[in-house]
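Batch manifest, entry 17 of 40.
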Amino acid sequence: MIMDINVNIKELNEKIEKQSDFVEAINHEIGKVIIGQKHLIDSLLIGLLTDGHILLEGVPGLAKTLAIKTMAAVIDARFNRIQFTPDLLPADLLGTMIYSQKKEEFMVKKGPLFANFILADEINRSPAKVQSALLEAMQERQITIGEKSFILEDPFLVMATQNPIEQEGTYPLPEAQVDRFMLKVLIDYPDKSEEKLVLRENIAKVFPTVNAIMKPDRIIKARNLVKEVYMDEKIENYIIDIVFSTRYPSDNGLEKYSGMISYGASPRASINLALAAKAYAFIRRRGYVIPEDVRAVCPDVLRHRIGLTYEAEAENVRQEDIIKDILDTVEVP
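Output type: structure tokens
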């Protein structure tokens, strides 16, 4: 029985190594325009391959818009950017009914959400009604305008951004809505050598362009392959132990956090951690998940799913600290 499993894993590994070759092609093409930001590109790929959405936090000017726009161009998909403002209405995202005098009937005018890639820029600048309209479309993958419902085209990926340094005039996303995002990714400044390349690229006579090297259908097929990536039961138990440590820290050797976590990660975190680990293994062109895959995606999956008490905030304890200690404490299979 063990030999059969080993043979199957070997065959699966070869199959995925062969059929994940487009990942390198995408990275090469995007690398023409985006300097550095490897973690951001990997996160976009993980979101695409698992049908998840991404909440991105970083200061302005870190190529957030350029990254998702370039990804859309590389896979020949439609891209729309929506700037969230306090006066935005749900109809500005979803669309509305307009009256045609020529046809003497109401017609549907579709909004910008009808695309494959959506950049929801500064999502926390719009009130809850607009945020809910976006998040409902993300969850249900459909939009209702009047009496008609429209299924959104696949793949459909939303990358919402938040500015961490400017909170005046913002509407924080409720925890239940934030939980709908598969990943919360933090991006930082490039290093000196990367920034020098960025500078040269932007003052050159011609800015680099990318080519469409594949169709969206390839991503949809790859999603089925990601689900085939082998995950041992020991890895599943490892994921469960990590998530349960955010809920019951005292039961897992983390007594110091018992009064600092107001709520832990939901079952959606366990699902997303497993899916993200499989996708991470896939983009590393591997047919099986190892503990390092789980550890690599864990901060992005969990950081927005752990609530802190006032005590934690008073002592400057962050979600990052808790996740690091959990990964250092939970036994690795």
